[in-house]
Amino acid sequence: MLWGGRSPRNLKIVWKPIKSTTRRQSFVLGKFRVLEKSALAKLRKSTGYSFSKCKEALEKHSNDCKQAEQWLRAEAQTHGWEKATKLHGRTTAQGLISVLTDSGNAVMVETNCEADFVSRNKKFVSCVSILLV
What we know:
One of its GO terms (cellular component) is mitochondrion. The protein is α+β, with helices and mostly antiparallel strands and 133 residues long. The chain has helices spanning 8-11, 37-47, 51-60, 65-79, 83-87, 116-119, 122-132, and strands spanning 24-28, 31-35, 94-102, 105-113.
């Protein structure tokens, strides 16, 4: 008896998907773990990193927020996630101002950069002209 005395129609009920619970569940290294939503929300709020990275950090460190945050900071340094925040305070005193007029309408674009030689670069000027159009 191939189907154990049951018809294939009755077997479809066995393969019915199970509804998900309110907690996020994962299977890591042969152990069943449950991610706490509050820990995930707390980690996302304190670090500002993506949901998937915070989830990965919590899975690796068994819902320990402090260890997960340290791991995220180390990953950010190796992958350069924080480079933009380091450059945030720099002044951009050089740049170009471009104006485009057409039948009574005008558009003005100010594009800033850190150094004067960058503002004279052909690629920078072409980028500004593309933005203008």
